[in-house]
Every structure is written in structure tokens, then in C-alpha cells.
């Protein structure tokens, strides 16, 4: 899922990602993102940092709290070391800066998705072996 | 295997299920660790790339902005952070010290990036009568200078006030503009003129559409009313930029910001916004970029001065701007407002006045001034046609020229620097100073060759005449520029040929070889910036455009006032005028200071007791440490686990070899139970490529050792226990591959030298790399060193970037297609086998030549080229 208050940017990126066979939806605020996640199972979130309403860092915090398995990639036009490290500490998968080559972004999404699936599998194995 | 498991399960139902689950759990564990490791490697590569970017930026001195510095620092921080996080997952609890070191380095960098001049004085408006030159941080250097002239030197300056840099910051904060502007800069490609053009327009619109905070609005209106009170009724203002750093010695910013003339108090807010928006005019953006100014350091102060109804006006240079040795005073003057001198749009009169007493006019050129600028009854100014008889008259007389010259002398003495002064004479004959700034002078192009050797053939001369606006000679194709679109189309290295020397062409100066204009003098803004950038410029060449053809190569000799056909080499020899304007600039210095916390590598030797987190002084140290430890963590986890399908296997190639292989993830075609693995079961693309190179050409055995070479081996063996049989260090006995399908890491000791090779080879071209490190040998230091350089030369031939420190060699190549990377791996495989013990013969030149030729021939055959 894409979260970016720049509607045009989010729509264009979503379109390009769909072309690369990634099932993609886009929303334009942190509030909408959290609502969306409550209804739709999601693997990876691409999250803008600077948005009106609840900002990216706060959204990230909420996502990680409610859905710890979802991987979040921060994508921002405002390079800011402090915010970047804060995001990473909260548990973002990566912090990327616009402009970003679409291929590289897709690789990042694949890596994040792989991390998530391994994590899910691991949890499953643990549950199975402890129940057996 | 499935059947066997089923069989066991039937006998030991509980246990069988559990061990199967355990095996599966372990497999997932391995996969998870490998993925962590791969993410760590990606972050490591990204960090190394960013360091290379920084080094390149510092070395080339090409323009870059703060957005580059910030984005770069953020990216490397994130990647180093990721490496530490991933290592912590691979070896939980073992590397806590690293996070502390990271935070320490991070803080140092952060401090350098957020340093900003704090404006302590909160006043939004200051009347000119209480301004002096100490206040330039608050009102900008232009207004500070005018205040000084008015209040300390007591020369006439119109009444007025300053809208301070504090006001500017309030305006920007009120609309949260700065971060929005930074965002737009970050995503723009600053080398793309078209993109810059759009960026400039967008940002200016953004500012113009914003509203000032209420208290600023009110303060400006009050200041206007007060002025009207003093002047007794309605007045009009000249609203000019007065930015920080503008008009100081060495940097002119000439003409890049906007000036709004004849503004009524109803329109002043709009004019104010126009002027501060011009901080992002195209010439201003490119100028800051090329000179390395930090965008956020430049606050736009604005000066508002009562308009003078100028009979005549112009510019005084207190010295010759294009000849350091000439201290005569140069006065340019026109009818009406002085603007047409500054913007280079009309021909102007020139008076040269000697400083020797009694001062007098020593040279006078009266031009036909076809137009003059006047105040309109509404807002703004208009340029009206002058009747021919009026246009031919001198705009000032010699007596006035001498009075102006005396003012210039007074100001130069006061400031102890040559000055560039804009002035106007009102209908009562009173002289007012409108602007004043340090004048940049230029060295005359020195001609060191005898005259007749330099003089090109007369037949090559296209045109003679004009005036030297900026010294030097340059050559390039002619490009006629007319409209704004030409700014986008202008080709790098062309000669810019224009009708008028307008300030808007300044944004092309970083790309132009030379400038030629039909109109304009050396007192214009364009001339100022041309001198600053060292671009040879010949102005005021009447009819030049009819004598040149678009695209033809010409040589412009600005000092000699000649344009030649073609390239005249004799004129171009001493054009080493090109200045590196980036070096020493604030942006450059910021990057340089920041890089000291990023790039130097202090942790060199992983075997040294100093190789520990507390000694990490830079990000590079951290990446080096983390990478080394991550390989160890991967290695010992695999080795330490009593899990037969993931324990290390001995390579079986014809016979069991002294090579052990650890499968990290998907490095084998199928799971293997026994202790050997055959080559055809290996799936690792980089390992197979390396191995192909390794076995391609059989080794002839060690080269015949000369007596000295042998003694040197014996001598070193007694010193280094790793070389002595029986007292071996950790890896001394084995060569280890750690592999997955796309990854391979090799630690090997062959003969007496130690090498590591690491490669990632997949369809993700941007992640591909091969790294190779090589150290040691048995011979004495001198021969080892020679071999290191021998290998360096070979690797560089095949596009590796190679760095040598003592006898330690580090080589890398990255970002190429899979097939290309496989070839590099083959070469490394070949060299690993064939350079062993070459240190023995390094003292013998003919042997060195023989082996070099043989190796190059072998590699050519290996690659089939």
C-alpha cells in the first residue's frame, strides 16, 4: 500500500507498480492508511514522512504497534537524518529518498516482503513445534 | 528420503514428527539469517557507493547543493544503521557498543548540518537612518552599505527602510515554505536546465501566492506611512533585494535578484513578495549552485528607498574592472534612471577620470542613447524613445563627472576597497547614491609569448571592436540566444552571442565558453558575473550577429577586442583562468567537514586487537567492522550447528579438495547428507564462475626461485607462525566458500598469501558487485609490494577499482550485468591460482615481463576474446 499526500505522485507510482505485478492500493493520509489496514491484509507499506494530519512517523508507530508483521518503507522528499534514524528505530524496513528509480523501489519491496514471509513462516514453525 | 522419514515416523511417531519440524525450523532459521545477511550486504554496498559519491563530489569540485549533502548524509546514516541492526540479529547482544559509536558519529554530522546563523535581532523593519555596516546580518549587505554611506560618510542617499532578514524568516515560517522548497530541490535533477527552469518558476509562484504574517504586513504599511509623513505626501519606492552575502567581496550575485521600481504603498506587499521570490530566480539558483552557497544561509533582506526622479544616472567603478594596474575612475551614464546601464540594454556614455590631482576627464565616449527609462505616473517604469538630438548629447557634463569621481574616491578611501556605485542626479542637480558594493577587479590577461608568435593571421579576423567586459580568450561554436527557451537549449561550451547584455543570461555563464553582445558595457550585471566566473566576454560589438553564423567555431579574444574564425591555439594556451568556484564555498566545506566523520578508514587489520567497536571513528570504520563480523557470524553459525545438511561440505572435484563449502541458503541444487559435494551439485553462480577461472589453465607449479627469493621465504617463515607447519592460525589449513545461488564469499590461503573474495551476482544489476582483497606472501616486503602492484595493474585493466595500502590490495567492481560479473570472477579465479608465489620472481624484470604476457594471454583465451 502507498501512503502519500501528493495524490498525483501516489497514483502514478501505484500505476507503475501494478504494471510490475504488485497488487497496489494508494491512500493519501496516515488516518486513511490505518483505516485501510484494518480492513485489508497488507504485506508492505510505502509511507511518506511529511503529511498533514498524523504524520509519517506517528503512522509508522501505529502500524508497527497494531501490525508488527507489516514491513514499512519510508519514502520521502525531505532528507532529514534525525527523522530517518527515528523511523529506523521504530522499526521501518528502510528510509528512501525521492526521486527513486522504480526498479530499485520494487527490489526494496521484494526484500521487505521476503523478510515478512520468513518472519511469518518462522512464527508458524515455532507454534507448530511447541504444539507438537 | 520421504519414504525413510515415513518409515521412522511409523516406529517413533512423536519423535519423528518433532525432528522433522526441527529440521524445517532450522531451515527457516538459515533462510532468515541469510536474508538478514543479504540485507546487510546491500546496505554495506550502498554505504560504500555513497562514500565514493562524496569523494567524487569533493574531488571534481562540480556544483552540488545542500540538498545533495543532506540526502547523502541521510542515506549513509540509514544504511549504516541497517548494517548494525542486521548484525545485532545475526549475533544478538554481542555488538551493543556499535550503536553508541553510531550515535556519537551521527551527532557530529548532525551538528554540522544544522549549523545556522541565528538572527538574534527580532526587528522586522529598520529605518535607513539607523542602519550601519555592522548590521549586514540583519538588513543584508546592500542596505548596510547604504546606511553607512548615509549616516557615516554623509553622502546623499534617498530616505527609506529595510525589511529585515528576521522578517523574511517570519514570512517563510508563517507559510512553512523552507521545508517545501527543500523537498522540491531534493527531487530535482540539478544538472537538467529545463528541470531547474520549472523548479524556479514553481518556487517563485509558491512564495508569491503566500501571505505575510499579519504583524509583518502592518509593520511594512506603517513604515510607508511614516515615510510619506516625512516627504509630505504620496511617494513611490524602489524595492530592492538586500540579501545576506550579496555584494560582498568575491561574490557579486549581481543582478540575480529582482528590483521593483516606482512602487506605491498599495503595491508594496506584492513587490516585497516578488523580490524575495527572486531568491529562486533561475540565475540565482544556478549561481548559488555553482558557487556552493547554502540555500538556507541566504535570507532575503529587502531595501525600500524613495524613488529619485532621475535626470541622468549610471554606475561608477572606482577602478578599471578589467585591469588591476589601472586605477582610473570609470563612469557610465545614461539619460533617465540608471537601470539601463545595469541591465545592459542600451549604449551608455563613458567618462574616464584620472585619480591624479587635479582630477580631470582623460577619456570620453558619447554614444547615441536611443531610449531612456523614466518613472510612470502609475506603478513601474517605462522606457521611452529619445529624439536623436537629445540622445546624442552627453548625459552628464565633465564637471559632474569630476564630482562623481570625487564621491567614488571618498567611498573607496572609506572602505579601502575599489567600489561599484550606482547613482542618480535629480532635477535639482543633487547626486544620490542608490547602491554601492565592492568591485571585483580582474587581472589583465598576461601575454608571455612574443607578440608576432601570438598574432594570428589577419585573414582569420571576423570582427574587431567592442569593449572587454571580462578578460581572456576562448573558443567554441556560435550560439545565438534570443528568448528564454534558448537558456534550455544552450549547448555546453558554446559561445553565447546575444543582442543585449541582459542579466537573465547569467545562468548560462557556467556553461558558456565566452560571451559576445552587441550592446552593453562592462558595468552591467552580466559583465560582473562573467568576471566572477572567468568567462571571456566581449560586449558592445555592433552588428556582430550579422557577421557570425550559428554553429561556426570562433575564437573570442576579449582582451584584444577581436573575434577570429576557427580555433586559434596560440591565443588559447594561457587560458588557465578557469576557477574552481566550488572549493572553499560553504556547501563544499560542509560536505568536506561531514566527510571526515564518514570516509576515513581506521580499522584496517581484522586480526589486530584494535579491531573493535570502540575504535570506530567513522561510518566507514563501522561498515568495515560490521561486514567482517557478519561474515564470521554466518560462518560460525553454519559450522557450529550440528545439522548435517547445513554443515560444511568438502568439495569433490575429481578428488576431495582442500576447499570447504558452506551452503547459506540455496547454494546447492539439492540437499546433501554426506560430507562431500560435487561440482555439478553447486548452484552458486558466482562460485561456479570463479571456479571456472581457477581450473581453466593448469598451474605450472611455482616459478623457479632464485637464491635470494628462497632465503627471504625462510626468513619470514621464522617470523610468522601462520606460515610454519604445525602452528597454524584459524584459517591457515582450509579454503572456505560460503555460498548461495547468487552469493559467494571465499576465504582462502593459497601458498603464503591470504585472500578474500565476495560477490553478489543476480539479475538486480544495481546490487551486483565483486570485491577482492589480497594480502601477504612469503617473500620480503619489497617483493610482496611489487606483486601487489603487479596484480593491481592487471585488475585495473579489467575495470576493477583498486586501492593499495602497503601490501594490502582491495579491488571492487559493481553495477554490471550478470555475464560481465561472471567474467570478472573468472579472472579472479585464474589470478588466485596463478599469482601464488609470483612474489618470488618480482625482483627479476624479465621474469615479470614474461609472466605478465602469459597471464594476459591466458585471460584473453579464458574470456574467448
What is the CATH homologous superfamily assignment of chain A? Response regulator
CATH class call of chain A: Alpha Beta
Q: Order of strands in the sheet with the most strands of chain B?
A: 24-22-23-25-26-27-28-30-29
Q: Which of globular, elongated, flat, extended, rod-shaped describes the shape of chain A?
A: globular
Question: Based on DSSP secondary structure assignment, what is the total number of beta strands of chain A?
Answer: 5
Proportion in β-strands of chain B: 15-25%
Oligomer: heterodimer
User: What is the rounded distance between the termini of chain B?
Assistant: 46 Å
Distance between the termini of chain A: 36 Å
Strand/helix succession of chain A: EHEHEHEHEH
Characterize the structure shown.
The complex is a heterodimer of chains A (132) and B (865). Chain A is α/β, with parallel strands linked by helices and 132 residues long. Chain A has a single domain, classed as Response regulator (Rossmann fold). Chain A has helices at residues 7-19, 30-39, 56-66, 81-90, 102-131, and strands at 2-3, 26-27, 44-47, 71-76, 94-97. A five-stranded parallel beta sheet of chain A has the order 2-1-3-4-5, with helices on both faces. The radius of gyration of chain A is 15 Å and the shape is globular. Residues 1-18, 445-454 and 709-733 of chain B have low confidence and may be disordered. By secondary structure, chain B is of the alpha+beta class. Chain B has five domains: 2-115 and 597-638; 125-306, 2-Layer Sandwich (Dna Ligase, domain 1); 312-438, D-amino Acid Aminotransferase, Chain A, domain 1, CATH 3.30.470.20; 451-567, Phosphohistidine domain (Glucose Oxidase, domain 1); 648-863, no CATH class. In chain B, strands 24-22-23-25-26-27-28-30-29 form a nine-stranded mixed beta sheet. In chain B, strands 14-21-20-16-17-18-19-15 form an eight-stranded mixed beta sheet. Chains A and B meet through helix 4, strand 5 and helix 5 of A and helix 2, helix 3, helix 4 and helix 8 of B.
